[in-house]
Amino acid sequence: EGEGGEGAAKKKKKKKKKASTGPKPGPVGTPSKKPHSRLLGEEAFTDYYVKYGQTDPPTVPVEDLFRGREYPKGEITPHPLESNTYRETDAEKRAHDRMMSDIYAKVRHASEVHREVRSYAQSFIKPGIKLTDMCQMLENKNRELVKEDGLLRGIGFPTGCSINHVAAHYTPNPGDDTVLQYDDVMKVDRMATTESKKNTWGH
To answer: How many CB atoms are located within 10 Å of the residue 80 CB?
Structure first.
C-alpha cells in the first residue's frame, strides 16, 4: 500500500514546463526605417512592428508577441450599400459579432503576420534581388512568425512574384536566376493560414 500510495503521489506531480528558448518581445520602440519601394506614403515604415515590442527584423512569433492581449484590428470600413447599414446598428447583429470574436481573433492573427512579413519584405525587395532568394526569405519569415504547424498553420501557397506582362501566379522554380530590374513592375502575392483562417496579401 505504501509503495502504491507513493506511486500515485508521483503521478500527481505536475511536470515542470520547459522554459521557452525562442525570441522574446523586447521594449517598445519607435518605427524609423523607410521602405525601398516608391509611392508607399510618408506613414510607411518597414519596422512599424517595433511599436509592439517586436524585434527588427521580426523574429518573435506573432502569437507570442500578443500573448495576453488583443491582436490589432487593422482598418475597418463601413459597408458601401445603404441596404446593409443594419450590420452596424442592429443590436442583434452586434451581439452575433461578439459571439464570433474567437474567429475574428484568428483572422486578425493571420492579418498581423501578413503585415509584419509585408513590412519586412519592403526592407529588402529592391532591384538586383534574385526572385528565388526573395521568395525563400518571405516564406521562411512567414513560417517563423506564424509558428508553422503542418496543415494547421503556415503558408497557403508558394509566393507569386509576377513581373511586367505576367499578370499573376508566377513562381520561380529551382534554378531560375531571374533578377528584379529597376524598371520592372512586380506583383507579389502570398497567403498565411492560422487554423484554416486564410489571409492573402497582394502588393
So the answer is: 6
